[in-house]
Amino acid sequence: MVGVDDIRAITRTLERAYEVVVRDRIKWRVGQIVFAALSRDEAIMGFGYPKEGRDALVEAEPDKFLLPPPSDLRFNWACARMAALDPEELDELVVNAWIMTVPKKVWMPYLAARGR
Length: 116
Fold this sequence. Notes:
Number of strands: 6
Strand content: 25-35%
Helix content: 25-40%
Distance between the termini: 24 Å
Order of helices and strands: HEEEEHEEHH
CATH topology: Aspartate Aminotransferase, domain 1
Shape: globular
């Protein structure tokens, strides 16, 4: 199981990323764009994810992933149950969500440094 401190450890390494608290919810942003957010009880993480792949993600692992609330379906967004994620999956989800929010010139060197 992973938690908020695991997300913080990942986001500290991401250029331009910062943490905010909005209405008792922890969110991570680049500029004004939110790329990851926790539910108030920190049980569910919302994250940037392409709309066109979201249904397949949820169908493949419904115990782990779920659709966002109806008000967020218009966004590139999906949700995951924190208790079902391992550290590697969390890292992949958070980094990929961050990649959706920064220019290529920012994420390319980051991935190259990590051997990806």
